[in-house]
Amino acid sequence: MSAETLQVTLRFVLAAVFVGMGVAHFLPGPARTMRAMIPPALRRRSMPSPAVLVAATGVCEIAGGIELLVPGLRTAAGLALVVFLVAVFPANAHAASRPERFGRVAVPFWPRFAGQLVLILLVALAIA
User: What pLDDT shows up at residue 23?
Assistant: First the structure.
């Protein structure tokens, strides 16, 4: 298998992952959990509501996933997804610190951090 074939395959896999996760933001159960994951620092009057933040991040994931497959948008989408992965990490860290509340969603901090880094690396490889 050529490097180009591997990269195209990676793009499709990442697109499926991001679109799938984005769609989950609009399903009642997962969306409720994601709203609860919003850290207290982002729950101020000056900030959008947790429901708006969850919907917006869902749209970002869906758009980014689709755009990874569009040649003219691929690089911008990849860079946006990297920024997105960094931006949503505080919510993941918040959940990690509360396993009694979030159960299996509360992946411990260091494995979650490593997972985010792997995803960032894979996105970078997909747009290289």
Answer: 98
Q: Are the C-beta atoms of 125 and 81 separated by less than 8 Å? A: no
**Domain-wise residue ranges, the chain:** 3-127
Largest alpha-carbon pair distance within the chain? 53
pTM: 0.91
Residue 108, SS3 per DSSP:
coil
Q: Is residue 103 predicted with pLDDT exceeding 90? A: no
pLDDT above 70 as % of the chain: 100
Helices (H) and strands (E) in the chain, counts: 6, 0
Q: What is the DSSP string of 37-82?
A: HS-GGG-STTS--HHHHHHHHHHHHHHHHHHTTSTTTHHHHHHHHH
